[in-house]
Amino acid sequence: MASAPTALSAPPGDEAVVAVRGLTKVFKDFWGRPKARAVDNVDFTVQRGEVFGLLGPNGSGKTTTVKLLLGLLYPTRGIIEVFGHSPRHVATKERIGYLPEESYLYRYLDSGETLDFFGNLFQLAARERRRRIEQLLEMVGLNQVRRRTVGEFSKGMQRRIGLAQALINDPDLVILDEPTAGLDPIGCREVKDLILALARRGKTIILSSHLLADVEDVCSRVVIYYGGRIQAMGTLKQLLTTPDAVCITAPLLPRQTMERVLDIIRRDVGADRVQIDTPTQNLESYFLGVVEQAKQTEETSGATSGHRVAAYLRGEAEGPSQAERVLERLALPHAAPPLPVAVQAPEPAVDTAKLEALTHAPEPAPAPKVETPPPADLEQANQKLAELLGGKGPSGPAK
């Protein structure tokens, strides 16, 4: 049977990733009159590598606090610092991954196109986007349905792709608002394992959830909201330990041994304060065990499970891809022959005299010189012309 994930016992670092002091948010109506005090004078810090839980009933101020941390809302009063800067600092936003309570995705894009879109927003290189998309789809169990559009997904599958888009930029701070809403028990376990894996790598996670069992499995510290105020805050061990009771777990004992033990305990505390019960596993562990056995013989057309956290989220060096490994297996054992080198023919000798003769245009021949006859010859020519024309001169009839 699968064992439940183990929550981190204490914050692993002293670096404050989120610091909130005197945070107050008052919503007003159209006329500027106070309408609702969603958050009222809240103080807390979140350390690096910590899984921090925000708990409380509906309308207690959890989602408003998350939006204030993201810079989506302005506080009425108070100070918020994320990585030492304002939540509206652009470089700070690049280090945050956010999964909202409702996934707002483009319904006509498939899974790969959705992650590629969000990867482009963070200006990831095309090769790096493809590598992360493959790992994330495998991690969230959507690799087999990657060609289906997001609009066809069930709510649980939309939460899976929403979780993948929140991690596409390998964020240092991950804010998850109801991450397991709509997920089956397998998906819930995988999300919890992912949260713990991110925390072990030094990531900081802020988790807002109504499922207290999930929070108990992964969170190191929690705050409990009511009426916009923090009513309780501390580690789970501090908040949940019952100091005046002890639980003893032992293997099955013979009846005589059990009676002797009970007699000793009853003499000290009284018979009415001793309870005997058989230990049981929780329903989640039993459910996961049944599904794990069914996976050996059955197939499913829905989301799959049992995949490891993406390598880049674990901080491991990335080896060759599957396609690269196939090409290596298909490669010939001997070295490829060198490519033929083209040999240029020697340039012929150039006759410079002919080249200059061709490049210089010939000079044009001089125009023939026309000589003007002297006046005596001109008069004789006019006389002959008149005779030929029948006695007419060049300017009219002869007189």
Instruction: Tell me the Rg in angstroms.
Output: 44 Å
Q: Please summarize the sheet with the most strands.
A: 6 strands, mixed
Roughly how much helix do the residues carry, as a percent range?
A: 25-40%
Low-pLDDT ranges: 332-337
The tally of beta strands, per DSSP, is: 11
Tell me the structural class: alpha/beta
Q: Count of helical segments?
A: 14
N→C terminal distance: 147 Å
Question: How much strand content do the residues show?
Answer: 15-25%
Overall 3D shape: elongated
Helix-strand string: EEEHEHEHHHEHEHEEHHHHHHHEE
The averaged pLDDT comes out at 78
Strand arrangement across the biggest beta sheet:
5-6-7-3-8-9
Architecture overview:
It contains 14 helices and 11 strands. With 399 residues, it is an alpha/beta fold. Strands 5-6-7-3-8-9 form a 6-stranded mixed sheet, sandwiched between helices. It has a 3-stranded antiparallel sheet with strand order 2-1-4, covered by helices on one side. Strands 10-11 form a two-stranded antiparallel ribbon. Helix 3 packs across helix 4. The longest helix has 16 residues. About 2% of the residues have low confidence.
